[in-house]
Structure formats: C-alpha cells, structure tokens
Write a structure and sequence with these properties.
Radius of gyration: 20 Å
Shape: globular
CATH class of the largest domain: Alpha Beta
Number of strands: 11
Helix content: 40-55%
Strand content: 15-25%
CATH topology of the largest domain: TIM Barrel
Distance between the termini: 14 Å
Number of helices: 15
C-alpha cells in the first residue's frame, strides 16, 4: 500500500513546516506529502518550499479550493511547482469547499458545483496538455470570457511554460455526482466519508464514471487515497477525547444547517443520528455537549491509537476496510511515521 503524509499546516496561526518529518517520509518510501487550505495558509506555497528540500516524494494538495483561483491559475501553480520539483511530482487535489467559504471568503457565487468542477478540470487539462490554445464553452466557466463586463477582446492562449508529463488531477468528494466526475475525468479520488463497508457504497458511482472515461479503461491507474491518524500512546481514552473537539467543531459548526460536508460524511460512515445530534447541539450553543456526543467508535474508525502492538493488531482492520490504493497518514512523531512505513511495507518497495 502507498502512503502519503498529511500536513495540517492550514490550521495553525503560525506556519511551521515539519521539514525533518517530511525528509524522513521520503527516506521511508512514502509516495506523497499533502497540504490543504481553508482561509489562512494556502496549499501551494508550502509545496514550492518542499520542492527544494526533497527529490522524489510527490507533492499533493488535499485540497485546493476551486473558488480560490481560476482553473488557469491553478494549472499555472501546478506547472510552476512541478518544474521547480524536477517534473512529474505534483498532484492537484481539488475540492469545492462549502458556500460559507466560497461566498463568505472568496466572494464568488456558489453556483452549480458539479458543472463548475467539470469545466474547471477540463480547462486545467487543456492548459497542462498544451495541445492547442485554450478555449472552452462551459456551463459555469468559459474561455475566452464573454459574460457581463467583457470587452469581447479575449483571446484563446497556450501556456508559455511547457509542463512536464505526469501532473495529476485528483478530486475530493463524498456525494454521488462528484464521485462519478472523479472517476470520469481525474487521475485519483480523495473520498470523504468511507463507512464500515469501505468502497461498497461508492462502487456504482465509480463504475458509472469509469464507463464515461475517454480512455475507456475501467479505472486503470486510478488512485484512491483514504486517510488515517496514528498516535502511539499508553492512554487510548485520553487520545480519543483529545480528537473530539476538532471533530465536533467540523461536524457541528463547519457549515450551515443546509450545507455541511463533514456532517454528511459522518452520516455516510454509519453515524447519522450522532451527526444530527452534534449539529443540533452546536447550533443551540451547547458546544461542550456537542463535542461529548462524538462517538468513540467514529474516532477509532479512522485513527490507530495505543501502543505499537495495539496499532499493529488494528492495522489490517482499518486498511482492509478502506480498500484504497493508498493512505494519507497524519501523525506527530518520527516513531509513528516509521511504524506506518513498516506496516505498509514502503521500505520494502524502495529496496525492490
């Protein structure tokens, strides 16, 4: 199994990049390192920094928000960082975020996210491929722009920078329409809300998307990366409790009554009643009670916590359920990083 290292730089008030851990991950054979963004630290800048400090590990975003940039701008970021990194190392994981951030932070309309994603991915492909000047007549995005305020002087252009082959586009999704879109247009998928049945609930949507792929190949080379947290500790109870505040905040407060992807992800993972209860408590201002309502089982489904022996014993039950081609690992220490590499056999893959 491939491993990625997940970085939560976007959550901090100060930007601190754990360079030693990232260099160690590359030494251990980790496939990739992943950044993200919300409304603070952006996802691309740290990858440009890491391009100078690493040589092999892929540089991914999980995710960049499509409302933050035009598709051409996102493609330019990817091509520039990939050139700095030596070529074939950048993975652009895309996500729509939610209307609170889209309209409240970026000041653009929510619109039709599925149509916007289709236009966005298609334009990015055209920019990166450089087969011809980029023109696209889309439902949500068109190039050249001919809408309100246009002078009518827009021209289809081709990137001056020649991209290296191998820049990948992945999509994060949990709903059926965007999951089908990921399988149809993208190189990989970052699933939100895998439940006890793993990929089973998504099989039909993935199959429908694969059937529409231009290559007509049923998911050949298509990557699926889920996530897992690893924490070596002698106090599992305390470790579970420590993760509940963030979970409660996301499920209860990171969104509105009508749009909260984290609440929907909890429901998809088999906890619909808990998700609704947390939401209701949070909106009622009972944040402490909302956090306490996060089920222990929900935390343990995506986290391996305890002694190294306990983590080893639970590794297969977690990774087999995900049935993914890779796992994005979140951990604090080098010891935890090493343990994941041993369990996944990434060092053996390097030697082979």
């Amino acid at each position: 199994m491939k491993l990625g290292l997940g970085l939560d730089l976007y959550r901090g008030a100060r930007l601190e990049v754990p360079v030693a851990k990232i260099v160690r991950a590359e030494e251990l054979g980790y496939h990739s390192v992943w950044t993200a963004e919300a409304y603070g630290c952006d996802a691309f800048s740290p990858l440009a920094y890491l391009a100078a400090l690493t040589t092999r590990i892929k540089l991914g975003t999980a995710v960049v928000q499509i409302a933050a940039r035009t598709p051409a701008a996102t493609a330019m970021h990817a091509m520039t960082i990939d050139a700095l990194a030596g070529g074939g190392r950048v993975i652009v994981g895309l996500g729509v975020s939610g209307p609170q951030i889209v309209e409240g932070w970026y000041g653009v309309p929510w619109g039709k996210p599925v149509d916007r994603l289709r236009d966005y991915i298609t334009i990015m492909r055209k920019v990166i491929d450089r087969a011809e000047p980029v023109a696209h007549d889309g439902i949500e995005i068109s190039l050249p722009y001919k809408g309100p305020g246009a002078l009518g002087q827009g021209k289809a252009l081709k990137s001056i920078l020649h991209s290296h082959p191998g820049i990948e586009i992945w999509l994060a999704s949990g709903g059926p329409l965007n999951t089908r879109l990921a399988a149809e247009l993208c190189d990989g998928w970052l699933p939100m809300g895998l439940g006890p049945d793993g990929m089973t609930a998504f099989e039909d949507d993935l199959h429908q998307g694969f059937e529409r792929r231009a290559s007509n190949r049923e998911g050949v080379g298509f990557e699926i990366f889920s996530g897992v947290g690893i924490e070596i500790t002698n106090d599992v109870r305390a470790a579970i409790d420590a993760k509940k505040p963030l979970t409660g905040t996301y499920v209860g407060g990171m969104g509105s009554a009508t749009h909260n992807y984290h609440r929907e992800a909890m429901a998809r993972r088999g906890f619909p009643e808990a998700a609704q209860r947390i939401h209701e408590l949070w909106l009622a201002g009972k944040k402490t009670e909302a956090i306490a309502a996060v089920p222990d089982e929900y935390i343990e489904e995506t986290n391996l916590m305890g002694t190294p022996q306990r983590i080893r014993e639970r590794w297969a039950s977690v990774t087999d359920r995900h049935a993914a081609t890779g796992l994005i690992v979140r951990c604090d220490t080098i010891e935890e990083l090493d343990l994941a590499a041993d369990l996944a056999g990434t060092r053996d893959q390097i030697e082979a």
